[in-house]
Design a protein that fits this description.
Chain A is an alpha/beta fold. In chain A, 41% of the residues lie in helices and 17% in strands. Classes of the chains: A alpha/beta (355), B mainly alpha (581).
Amino acid sequence: MNKRTLTATLAAVLLGTLALTSCSSTAGEASSSGDSSGTLIVYTNSNSDGRGEWVTAKAAEAGMKIEIVGLGGADLANRIVAEKNNPVGDVVFGLNNMFFETLKSEDAVSAYTPEWSGDVDKSAGDAKDGAFWPLVEQAIVTVYDTNTVTGADAPTQVSDLWEDAAYDGRYEVNTSLGQATPQLVLAGLLAPYADKKGDLGISDAGWKQVQDYYKHGSPAVEGTDLYARLTRDEVDYGVLPSSGITSRDAEYATKTGVISPKDGVPYVTEQIAVINGTPRQGQAEKFIDWFGSADVQGEFAAEFASFPVNEKARAQALPEVVALIESLPKQDIDWSLTRERISEWVEKTELEYLP
Amino acid sequence: MRNSSWASMFRSPFVVIVSLVTLWFVATFLVFPNANLLISTFLPQGQFSFRAIDKLVSSERAMNSLWHSFALAATLAVTVNVVGIFIVLVTDYFKIRGARMLWLGYATTLIYGGIVLAAGYNFIYGRYGFVTNAVRNWFPEIDPNWFSGYFAVVVVMTLATTTNHMLFLGSSLAKIDYQTIEAARNMGASTMSILWRIVLPALRPMIFAVTVLTFLTGLGALTAPLVLGGTDFQTIAPMILTFSKSTGSRDLAALLAVILGLATIVLLAMMNRVEKSGVYFSVAKVATPLQKQRIPNRFANAAVHVAAYVLFVVYATPVLLIVLFSFLQSSAILTGSITWGDFTLDNYATVFGTPAVLRPFVVSVVYSALASAIVVGGMLFVSRVLQKHRNPVTTMLEYLLHIPWILPTILIALALVMTFDRPNAMVGGQVLTGTTSLLLIAYVIVKVPFTLRLLKAAFASVPESLEDAARILGAGSMFTLRKVLVPLILPTAAAITALNFNSLLDDYDAAVFLYHPLYQPLGVAIKASTEGENNVDSMSITFVYTVLLMIIMGFTMYLVYGRGGSSTRRRKRRAGTVTVK
């Protein structure tokens, strides 16, 4: 082998190893874990519509340097569980109680009692162990546009939608069961039918409800907002979290009516917790004390039309939000059963009942 | 070319080193993490359960979706080849007026895809699309839902996946020896029979490679069926996505993915077999650049022109619409009534008004560029060794390198996070979870099979005589590779790099689990700004990002192909001179 070939071979080897291992050498300095000072990494699914920027700016005013990592609910929960042996984030907020129950059972969050614990209804969070604490409450509501549907035509019970042939195909059903809202709809549908002897803890009558709900509905169209479908008369009814109503009425010139069933609607509570194993425990606790306080939650509510759990903060919430929430009774849902079973329910629905 | 003796393989230090590095890579990043994940999914309590199989078989919906995915893949393997070969012939083989413009129109699928592409076609032909509306003005009895289901999905995906044909078949076509065609003509062969008996057979290795890719795209179809499939034609990918995100159902996701993956591997094995038989090569020994052919039959000529221009319009309209829509309010787009008052710059203001909007672009450009350069650089050596030395070890390596095709990106990403969350001896005792490197590794991994397939096909089409000549003249294997082979496959390698770069640019599936909090990539940023309960303008924002991505991707393609056909021609000529020497 001549000299030139040897050099070339060496170069190739260098290139090859460099190519394949350089990956690991670029890392070192950028590693986020391991040091106890520095930027606090805040995981949330509640960063859209400028919320992330708002929290970052307000935290900076309060002397805290944070970096928001915003991901969708299911993705975020999966990421935290996957990282639990070497956590990247320090605090997580915005996920609903169902996701937090999962994080707790995976030991991915650790208990901490915030300064404002006395201002919130403990039963809205983790009353038993105090692993996570409630921030914001949301109702999952069935809506319609009062411009096209008069209040008298609207059903009084959500179940009328699939039991009365008049509504056949006129209500939207969201089939992306990986997302939080469709899961809550499912939980709400099944909640009255809990039956220890039934399949997955639900009686046959309950599964019949789920089957009929999806069978008579019009599946959501990927990339098309519910309100766009309402305004072009594709459907008359659909489900969304209560906080989305105000901005849509403004954009689509609709006037939203809400179906308020006697048994209530599902409510979810967004929570906050320290991620287990963070090196920045002190900073994380400081952030929680600050973010959940009556002042900050009140300002947040006024800015983003949320309904805070913190009773002192409610005075600052928008009046129309308070009025809507107070007009909607809470549905009785067994959350511990729901958390335990929801992934099986989703699986069964996905395999058997989706259109 | 096919040297299966072990001795010759180990005689060359180059081969030995490439093999060792590949073995390490495969073991560390492909086999170990995924085996970990699959074992914990399928054997949760240490023993195999048939739960997943039972569940799937008893679900009518799962079986239907699975069947739809296979039907779609099989259909696409035919339709994409028909359309793809047609557009390659129209732009590169036949003399067609305005071929350059046609090429640009057909090339639009290079710079956009996914939900935006499906939505674009839906806005034109869908229930509220303007073509549907216009036609219904004349013929009110036409079903407004005509463009949905199997038919619509096949049409849209056929048009969207001709990208590979354009790039790779195009460059293979350029390598055909024109003298063979001239000789055939002198012997009285017709245009049709030259095409059928000489041109297409010479393109076979590349046609096989892109057919495998097309089949795979069909199996994994996600957004087109979601947007256009309606309730009658849903595929399996959305179900895999939902299941892989839930710990309890991950075994179902993995099983479904493995079924799809095995189908791909079977197809791959069949193609490898045909490729091995290798009797059909009619590649130039002395390559004379191809000259464009006139279609002698007047009627046929007119028909081909018409078809080419109709296709051009079909290809180009959605892109123009997306640019237009990026200047419109969401409500106007979605409700389908557009007036002059709806035009606005607000969408661009929203995107550029976000603090640090450029940062995700920079992060993604750096990641994508690094990953695509690394993967093409590495696979250049690997595919060379795999193609040159065929023995059980290299065959096994080749199949193992296709693992990323079998598993969905989400599972690969999760497996990486969970495997490298503790010091791992395979990577020098480092913890990779939470570092910037893990996403780069994931990007390299997911691009390995695509790159390997096409590079192997490119190597296969290089005439053996060139290598023999080099060896006889005393060139070593590295020298031959560097000076003789690489220049010949450079156009293909450049095209793969560009395609990898473009497809990684707005990746979400891998990034979501792996990105470092301080370096947010574009896909995550787009998702963040388009999702959210109050974000009613999401569709418009998506269009703005798509337009910005189109600009970057268009620029990438310009760097590779741009400066016109002139550079390609120059390259061809250079390839010719190398051969003559």
